[in-house]
Design a protein that fits this description.
Elements (H helix, E strand, L loop, with lengths): L2 E4 L3 E8 L2 E6 L14 E9 L6 E9 L8 E9 L5 E2 L1 E5 L11 H5 L4 H13 L3 H23 L4 H6 L2 H8 L2 H18 L10 H33 L4
The structure holds zinc ion.
The site of zinc ion has 8 residues, from loops.
C-alpha cells in the first residue's frame, strides 16, 4: 500500500490483490467523530462480490487521526476484479453513523421527540435499512407537527394529541407550509403502507420535504421575533 496523488488534490491509495493493483480514494470523513480527516490506512481484505464474478469487494480498514477519536474505520469499495489499476468505487461505511443535521434554535427549543426519531431514522437509512427509515421519518413528521401545534395553541393540547396527523395539519397550519406538510404526510404515509400511491418518490424526497418544513418554521418564527421586537421598541414612550 502506498500513497499516491492523482489528479487535483485527490488522495488515492493503492491496494494489491494477487497480481493486480487497485486504487481507492482515501477516506476523508470520519463516521464516528464526523470530522473531515486524512484517514490512516491500516489494512484491507477482499471478498467475492455476490452479484458478479467480474467484481471484487474491497474491505479496507483505516484509523481516524483525530486524537480525541482514533477509531478504526471500515469502508467498503468495489473494483473490477480483472482490471489491473482499476479505480475502485466507494460503496459505504460498514459502521459508524451519518453526520446529523444541525437544528435551528426554534426546533431545539421545541423540545420535541422529533429530533430523536429523525436521527434514528437517519441512522437506519445510513445502514441501508430503507424500509424502516421511511416509517421513522413519517413518525418524526407527526411529532414535529403535533408539538408545534401544541406550542402555538397550548389550550388545544388534548384535541391536538387525539387528532390524526392530517387533521392537525388541516386545522392548525395554513398557506404554503400547510401545502408542504400535507405532501410530506402523503409521502410519509406511503412509507408505512403496503401499497404505494406515489411510486416515483422515495425516502430522500421525504427528507427534502422535512428540510423545507424545518426552514419554513424557522423563518416563520424569526420573522415573528423581528416584527414583535422592533414593534415593541417603537411603541415605548420616547424620552
Ligand atoms: Zn474520528
Amino acid at each position: 500500500m502506498s500513497l499516491l496523488y492523482l489528479g487535483v488534490m485527490e488522495r488515492v491509495s493503492q491496494v494489491r490483490h494477487q497480481s493486480n493493483a487497485y486504487y481507492v480514494r482515501d477516506i476523508s470523513f470520519c463516521p464516528y467523530c464526523h470530522n473531515h480527516i486524512a484517514a490512516n490506512y491500516q489494512s484491507s481484505f477482499f471478498e467475492i462480490n455476490k452479484e458478479s464474478d467480474a467484481l471484487l469487494d474491497l474491505i479496507t480498514i483505516w484509523q481516524c487521526p483525530n486524537p480525541e477519536c482514533f477509531k478504526y474505520i471500515f469502508a467498503k469499495y468495489v473494483a473490477h476484479r480483472h482490471v489491473n489499476g482499476d479505480q475502485a468505487e466507494f460503496v459505504g461505511f460498514l459502521d459508524g453513523t451519518p453526520e446529523l443535521d444541525k437544528w435551528p434554535k426554534v426546533i431545539v427549543e421545541l423540545n420535541s421527540r422529533f429530533i430523536k426519531i429523525y436521527e434514528q431514522s437517519l441512522i437506519a437509512e445510513f445502514k441501508g435499512l430503507d424500509e424502516i427509515a421511511g416509517m421513522g421519518f413519517r413518525k418524526a413528521i407527526e411529532f414535529l407537527v403535533k408539538d408545534w401545534a401544541i406550542k402555538e395553541k397550548p389550550e388545544d393540547r388534548d384535541k391536538i394529541i387525539s387528532f390524526t396527523l392530517n387533521e392537525v395539519v388541516n386545522s392548525y397550519f395554513k398557506d404554503e407550509l400547510k401545502a408542504i406538510l400535507l405532501r410530506a404526510t402523503w409521502l410519509g404515509n406511503d412509507q408505512s403502507h403496503y401499497q404505494k400511491l406515489f411510486e416515483e418518490y422515495d425516502v430522500s424526497d421525504l427528507k427534502e420535504l422535512i428540510g423545507l418544513i424545518i426552514s419554513d418554521l424557522d423563518k416563520q418564527e424569526r420573522t415573528k421575533h423581528w416584527i414583535n421586537s422592533v414593534e415593541s421598541r417603537k411603541n415605548k414612550p420616547s424620552k
